[in-house]
Amino acid sequence: MTLKMPLCTKEDLSEAVKLQKRAQYEEERKSRIFNARQRLFGLDLDALERQILEKKKQRSIQIECDKRYEEQEQLQKRLITAKEKELEKEKRIVDSDLNYYRCRYQRLDQRREYDLNDPNFLKKAKPARIADDDIMLGVSSAQIFYGEDLHRNERQVRQREQQRAWLDQQVKERKQAEEARRKADSVYIESVNCRDKHLEEMAKSDHNMRHQITHKIRQYNINLAKQKQANRERAKRETYEDDMAEIYNMLSSDMLTENPDVAQSRLNPNKKIAFMYRGMTPDELVEFRKGQEQQLTQTLQRKTEVQLMNKQWEQYAINMDRTLMLKQIEMDRKHKEQLDELVRANTKLAVEQDQQRKEALVQLSNAVSDEFYDQFNKNSR
C-alpha cells in the first residue's frame, strides 16, 4: 500500500499496516461468509477426518501398549503364584518329614524318663527271687524285697549307652536338618534373585519400548508438522491462483458485461435467471402493464362475486334462524301443555288415592290410632 503523502513517519507506516491487515481480514471474512459450502457446514471436514484418524491411531497404539503391560503383569503373577506353590509344597514336605521323624524316633516309649512313668513297670519288673540258687539271697534264705533293683549297674550302663546313641542320632539329625534348611534357603534366595533379575530385564525392556514409542511419536509429529506446513503452503498457493482466476472470470463474465442473453433459462423459455437478470425491455414492460391491468380487473370481478355470494349466504342464514326460532317456540308451547296435562292428571290421581285411603281406614276395625305412636320415644331407654 502506497501513501500519497510528501513525508511518511513511523506512526503513518504502522497505521497503514493496521489498515492493510484490517482490509485483508475483511476480505477473508467475506470469502468465508460468501462461500456456500463453508457457510452450510462450518467446518473443515478434511482436517477433522485427519484428526480422527490420528486419534484412532494413537488410541490403537495405547491399547497395544496396555495389552503388553497386562500380559507382562499376568506373566509375573503366574511366576509368583508358581513360586509360592513350590515353596508351599516344600514346606509341606518338611512338615511331613518332621512328623514322620517324631512318630518314628520320638515316641513316648523312647523317652529317657519313660521307665519312671511306665504304667506297666510292675509287670515288667523281676520277681523277688529268680531261683532257689539265687546268689543274691542271704544266709538266712530271706527273700528279696520289692522295689530293689537287681540289675542296677547293668541297667545304668545300658541307659548311658542308649542316651549317648540318642544324643549322637539327634546331633546327626539336627545337622542334617540344618543342612537341608541351608539348602532350602539357598534355593529360595537363588529363586528370588532369578525373579528380581527377570523383573529387572522386563523393566529394561519396558523402558526401551517406551523410549522407542516416544521416539516414533516424536518423529511422526515432526513429519506431520512438515506435512501440515507443506499443505498450508500448497493451499495458500492454490488459493492465490483461484483468486486470480476468479478475478479474471469476474472481469470477463456476463454479469459485468451485462449480456441479456445469459439471463434466459435453458429449461423454460418463459423463465429468467434471477441473479443474471438486468431488467425488462420496453416491450416487455408494456406487456407486463397490460397483464397487471387484466389481473386487477379479474380481481375486482372476483371480489364482487364473493360479496354477492356472502350477502346471499347471510340472507339464507337469517331465514334459517327465523325458521328455527319459530320451531323452538312451537316445541316449547307443546311441552308446556304436556306438563300442565301431567300436573292435572297427578292432582286427580292424588285425590282419588286419598279418598281410597280414608275409605280403607273406615273399613278396618283394628286401625292404628295416634295414641299407639305417642307411647314411643318418651325416655332414653
Automatic annotation (TrEMBL):
Superkingdom of origin: Eukaryota
Record bears the keyword Transmembrane helix: no
Cell compartment(s), UniProt: Cytoplasm, Cytoskeleton, Flagellum axoneme
Any Pfam family matching the protein: RIB43A
Keyword annotations of the record: Cell projection, Cilium, Coiled coil, Cytoplasm, Cytoskeleton, Flagellum
Subunit structure: Microtubule inner protein component of sperm flagellar doublet microtubules.
Family: Belongs to the RIB43A family.
Entry protein name: RIB43A-like with coiled-coils protein 2
Species, as recorded: Drosophila navojoa (Fruit fly)
Organism ancestry: Eukaryota, Metazoa, Ecdysozoa, Arthropoda, Hexapoda
